[in-house]
Every structure is written in C-alpha cells, then in structure tokens.
TrEMBL record:
Protein name: Nuclear movement protein nudC
Record-linked InterPro entries: CS_dom, HSP20-like_chaperone, NudC_fam
Superkingdom of the source species: Eukaryota
Annotated Pfam families: CS
Record region (Disordered): 1-26
Native source organism of the sequence: Rhizopogon vinicolor AM-OR11-026
Ranges of residues in domain CS: 30-119
Length: 192
C-alpha cells in the first residue's frame, strides 16, 4: 500500500482511479472470506452461510473478549483468531437462522472506532472510506451526533490539509477580536 503523501500528489482523476481500484481489490478480498460482515460505530455483525439443515448443537462458537472461533463440531474452524478490537462479552451473541445462516453480533468496547477487519489476520478495509448510514446518525442523541459529525468533518478537513473546526473557531475568534481592537497589531501573532 502506498503512503498518503503519494496520494496527495495525484490529480483528482488519478485519485478516483486509485480509489476505484482499491475499492475493487477490497471488495474482492472481503468477498473471498467465509463470512460477510458489516459494522456501525458501536457494533459488528457477521453473517456466515452454513449447510442447510445445520442445528445449533452442530456448531462450536466461542466468543471471547479479543478472540472468536466458529466451526462445526469435530471439524476445522470456519473462522478463528484474534479480534481486531476488544468486545463487550455480555452483549455479544450468536444465533442460527433458518438452519442455514449463522449470525454473530459483537458489541464493540470502544464505540467511537471503526474496525479495519474482524480478525487481525484477515484483509483490512480502509476505514477512512466508511460512510456511516445517515439514518443511523439520526438515531444518536444530539450531543453524540454532533460529536460524530464533528469528527467526520475534522477528518475530511485534515485529509484535504484544511483547518479543523476548532482551528476555524480560533481563527474566527481572532478576526472578531482584531475587528474590535483595530489599534492592536496582530501581524506577527501566532495562533496555537
């Protein structure tokens, strides 16, 4: 993977082409996994197709704070390894649906962080490209939602080399102060 410095030197067309290629490669890597997963800021949901007619007692599912193992009794695991981040054990569950789909719900310990992958040895996704579903943003209470939107805004600004919302506020405050005190010289003032 190339560094972000290279990326910043590319034209918009080159960036779009690279983003598209990265997205396709990422999609292919994810499609090759024996499961499908999606996440919200606070949770991860994993769907594993299993043989039709499978019963819960045929499965061995071990969910630990930082490990996950899924498989059939007496057979090799379907997926096994260290989780990307820690989970809340008491709120993480698994169920078997229609005797053919295993659903695993993991509650993240840190609810302000996107996961790059489920298991640390599996291909990573680019978490900077995640667009949270707007409907889900509206589920958050006002304060949390404001914080998430601010984080998203600041992240985008940083990637574009523009000032974050806090820096913009400081610049705005300084402008107001300058306007109110035209007799002071701010030409050498440093904003920290």
């Amino acid at each position: 993977m190339s560094s972000n410095d290279d990326y910043d030197k590319l034209t918009k067309e080159e960036r779009d082409a690279r983003d598209k290629a990265d997205a396709q490669r990422e999609a292919a890597e994810q499609a090759a996994l024996p499961y499908v997963w999606k996440q919200e800021l606070g949770e991860v949901d994993i769907t594993i197709p299993v043989q039709k007619g499978t019963r819960a007692r045929d499965l061995v599912v071990v969910i630990q704070k930082k490990k996950l193992s899924v498989g059939f009794k007496g057979k090799e695991a379907i997926m096994e390894g260290e989780l990307c981040k820690e989970i809340k054990l008491e709120e993480s569950t698994w169920t078997l649906e229609d005797q053919q789909t295993l659903l695993i719900h993991l509650e993240k310990l840190n609810k302000q962080q996107w996961w790059e992958n489920v298991l640390t040895h599996h291909p990573k996704i680019d978490t900077r490209k995640i667009q949270p579903e707007n409907s889900k943003l509206s589920d958050l209470d006002g304060e949390t939602r404001g914080m998430v939107e601010k984080m998203m805004f600041d992240n985008q600004q940083k990637q574009m080399g523009k000032p974050t919302s806090d820096e913009l506020k400081k610049m705005e405050a300084l402008k107001k102060f300058q306007a109110a005190h035209p007799e002071l010289d701010f030409s050498n003032a440093k904003i920290s």
